[in-house]
């Protein structure tokens, strides 16, 4: 068989296979019609193989055909094709030969083909269809498995067989869409061979989708509180006496906050989670060391961490977070909050949003996230919270600490806090300060030339706001009006009910009143992202006035069913009073130490020429520890210098590292230019935690104490004073 026929038959078979695969994959693709197999005949006679081009050749062709017809039966006429593709001339039309006695009659015209193989028709549409079909099938299979795996994993995380935890679930509030949620993290202090231990950690975490913020508040384990049914006791005894249910009830009574989720934390799980992420980069403020040899003096967790910014593994991270034996419980809580803040950055860089399913898989075997048994968390809810956490700007993570704590007069070695101190901390937790950082930077360093200050078009204290009940809940309008007054809308007042029910809170404004639209937007923002803003129009006015109460104010708030009784705080900066910086100015102080560190590190360094008043260049607990540590971490050359103003809670430091983008410098609260240097400012509420800058491939920063005890004024004065170390 000739090459052309083979090509056609092979193509036909391939087309049939492709067509079958396309049907199996349920993908419709353009399919060319199959070639005619009977046309794949290639005569071997040269006279037939080459089409005639003139009359002489036609005569020869006719004579040869007549001879051949004697021995051949009658066949269908054959079509004549030219090799160049042109139509045949009349002389090229085949001549019918007379049949013989046994020839079976007149022979029809012959089809004459060139021996040149025909080009196979393009079949890429079908191939693409097959590939797409297979990908769709594989994708559906993988997606089905991923969905099943995710559901199974979430079920494992959110379900517990522990009877006490099941009881605690009954005391949890249902989390509502687009509203803040609060989780209580309880870490148990159980030692090997012992029964139920006391709680080692009680930390509340609040995630607010309205303000895209995260607030944490730790409760000192030695704080004396009322434990329901047991009287006044240290709060960590609540867990020992009644496990999760009593610990949850105690926190709710102390703070007045409804808890949506309970996260029992096993410290071994803590280590595994940290190890999974390859450790966490932490700013270690000073030397931590203990070798537990079994003696009474050293009978606590072993730890061995040098000062300075470094990658800390799971065991040392846990020891750092739990350590409290040479300082206080308050400093320990600050360490835990530092860990939470920096661990979030570690997870963000790891790829929280892109690898959330992998993260949930890690959590499966290491963590429980328990919600209300009336409506347990599902996969979608956890994914939404995960994405929300990943989207929170790093400057919107606020750590709240309980201030004004004193030693207990009735429980030696324990702590007491007044109801006013607890309320103040709870208010900061529910309304985290996200605005003060920029305002303090503008006041104490200078205006940000890149930020255009827009003057408000309204005065919250003088614009009229009436609140109407549109959800049927008694006193909802009065409650919302009171909160608006607390948030600065001094003329807000309740104005009755709407006869029409609203799902989402809607804020109407009178378009003819200056600033009413902007005021309505600001108020709606405090009710959450699902609230609406609309201009007052005749239909809505008539709808609201059905109950006989006329609209008299330019802004009208209709409370919807999604209102939970909790408004977001106003975006108003509350500045602490500006203080005179308490500093010691000495350009030559420690210059020899800095020169020696620069020589050993092999990188250019900068040093402060003023220092917080009374601070010494030393480690407060290790007199033999050199204050300047020269080291390498993660392949980066680094230098850290420890300063101390007292025994432990005023330890601060200066860090230099040959690393342009260390994780700790992600997401500053504000930036300001000072004498050609860009200062990166990191605030925790109104407290300046860190001032950093970058120069010649080196990152420098001044780190406040864990508890933020160094005043803002001193932090700024020291940061401004840095100059290159001379040789």
N-to-C span: 91 Å
- Uncertain segments: 1-58, 65-86, 90-106
Mean pLDDT over all positions = 79
Portion of residues in beta strands equals 15-25%
How does CATH name the architecture of the domain at 159-266 and 366-432? 2-Layer Sandwich
- By DSSP (H or I, 4+ residues per run), the number of helices equals 18
Shape: globular
Structural class: alpha+beta
Task: Give the neighbour order of strands across the main sheet.
Answer: 22-23-24-28-27-26-25
Radius of gyration: 40 Å
Q: Note the main sheet.
A: 7 strands, antiparallel
CATH fold label of the domain at 159-266 and 366-432: Nucleotidyltransferase, domain 5
What descriptors fit this protein?
18 helices; 29 strands; disordered N terminus; Alpha-Beta Plaits; Nucleotidyltransferase, domain 5; alpha+beta; 727 residues; Aminopeptidase; 5-stranded mixed sheet; globular; 7-stranded antiparallel sheet
Task: Describe the model.
This protein has 727 residues and is of the alpha+beta class. Among the domains are: 159-266 and 366-432, Nucleotidyltransferase, domain 5, CATH 3.30.420; 271-350, 3-Layer(aba) Sandwich (Aminopeptidase), CATH 3.40.630; 465-559, Alpha-Beta Plaits, CATH 3.30.70.2390; 583-724, MucB/RseB, C-terminal domain (Phosphorylase Kinase, domain 1). The protein is 33% helix and 20% strand. The chain is built from 18 helices and 29 strands. The strands form nine sheets. It has a seven-stranded antiparallel beta sheet, covered by helices on one side. A hairpin with a 2-residue loop joins strand 27 and strand 28. Residues 1-58, 65-86 and 90-106 have low confidence and may be disordered.
């Amino acid at each position: 068989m000739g090459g052309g026929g083979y090509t056609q038959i092979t193509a036909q078979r391939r087309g049939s296979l492709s067509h079958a695969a396309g049907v199996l994959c349920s993908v419709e693709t353009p399919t060319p019609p199959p070639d005619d197999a009977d046309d794949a005949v290639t005569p071997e006679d040269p006279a037939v193989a080459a089409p005639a081009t003139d009359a002489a050749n036609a005569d020869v062709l006719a004579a040869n055909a007549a001879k051949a017809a004697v021995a051949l039966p009658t066949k269908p006429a054959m079509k004549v094709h030219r090799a160049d593709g042109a139509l045949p001339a009349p002389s090229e039309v085949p001549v019918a030969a007379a049949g013989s006695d046994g020839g079976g009659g007149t022979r029809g015209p012959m089809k004459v083909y060139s021996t040149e193989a025909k080009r196979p028709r393009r079949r890429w549409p079908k191939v693409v269809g097959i590939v797409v079909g297979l990908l769709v099938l594989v994708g559906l299979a993988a997606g089905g498995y991923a969905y099943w795996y995710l559901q199974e994993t979430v079920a494992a995380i959110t379900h517990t067989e522990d009877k006490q935890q099941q009881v605690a679930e009954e005391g949890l509030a249902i989390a509502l869409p687009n509203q803040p949620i609060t989780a209580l993290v309880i870490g148990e202090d159980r030692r090997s061979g012992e029964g139920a231990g006391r709680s080692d950690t009680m930390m509340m975490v609040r995630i607010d989708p309205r303000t895209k913020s995260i607030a944490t508040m730790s409760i000192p384990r030695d704080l004396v509180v009322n434990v329901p049914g047991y009287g006044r006791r240290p709060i960590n005894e609540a867990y020992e006496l009644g496990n999760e249910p009593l610990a949850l009830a105690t926190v709710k009574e102390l703070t007045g906050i409804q808890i949506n989720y309970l996260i029992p934390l096993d410290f071994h799980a803590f280590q595994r989670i940290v190890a999974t992420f390859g450790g966490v980069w932490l700013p270690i403020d000073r030397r931590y060391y203990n070798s537990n040899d079994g003696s009474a003096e050293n009978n606590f967790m072993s730890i061995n961490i040098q000062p300075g910014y470094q990658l800390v593994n799971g065991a040392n991270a846990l020891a750092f977070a739990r350590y409290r034996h040479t300082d206080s419980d308050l400093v320990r809580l600050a360490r835990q909050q530092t860990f939470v803040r920096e661990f979030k950055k570690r997870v963000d860089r790891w790829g929280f949003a892109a690898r959330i399913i992998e993260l949930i898989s890690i959590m499966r075997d290491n963590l429980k996230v328990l919600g209300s048994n009336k409506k347990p968390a599902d996969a979608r809810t956890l994914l939404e919270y995960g994405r929300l956490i990943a989207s929170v700007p790093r400057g919107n993570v606020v750590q709240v600490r309980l201030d004004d704590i004193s030693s207990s007069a009735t429980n030696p070695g324990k702590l007491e806090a007044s109801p006013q101190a607890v309320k103040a901390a709870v208010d900061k937790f529910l309304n985290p300060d996200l605005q003060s950082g920029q305002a303090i930077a503008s006041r104490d360093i200078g205006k940000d030339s890149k930020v255009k200050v827009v003057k408000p078009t309204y005065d919250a204290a003088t614009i009229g706001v009436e609140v109407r009940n549109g959800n049927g809940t008694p006193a909802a309008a009065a409650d919302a009006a009171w909160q608006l007054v607390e948030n600065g809308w001094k003329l807000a007042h309740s104005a009755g009910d709407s006869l029409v029910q609203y799902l989402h809170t809607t804020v109407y404004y009178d378009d003819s009143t200056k600033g009413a639209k902007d005021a309505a937007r600001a108020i709606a923002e405090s009710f959450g992202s699902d609230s609406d803003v609309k201009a007052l129009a005749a239909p809505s006015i008539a709808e609201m006035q059905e109950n006989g109460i006329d609209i008299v104010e330019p802004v009208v708030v209709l409370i919807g069913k999604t209102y939970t009784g909790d408004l977001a705080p106003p975006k108003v900066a509350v500045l602490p009073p500006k203080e005179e910086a308490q500093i010691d100015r000495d350009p030559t102080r420690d210059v020899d130490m800095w020169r020696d560190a620069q020589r050993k590190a092999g990188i250019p360094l900068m040093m402060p020429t003023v220092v917080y008043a009374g601070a010494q260049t030393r480690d407060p607990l290790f007199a033999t520890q050199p204050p300047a540590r020269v080291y390498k971490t993660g392949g980066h050359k680094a230098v850290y210098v420890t300063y101390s103003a007292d025994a432990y809670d005023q330890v601060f430091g200066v860090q230099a590292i040959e690393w342009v983008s260390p994780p700790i410098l992600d997401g500053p609260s504000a930036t300001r230019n000072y004498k050609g240097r860009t200062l990166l400012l990191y605030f925790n509420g109104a407290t300046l935690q860190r001032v950093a800058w970058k120069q010649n491939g080196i990152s420098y920063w001044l780190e406040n104490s864990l508890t933020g005890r160094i005043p803002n004024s001193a932090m700024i004065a020291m940061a401004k004073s840095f100059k290159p170390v001379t040789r």
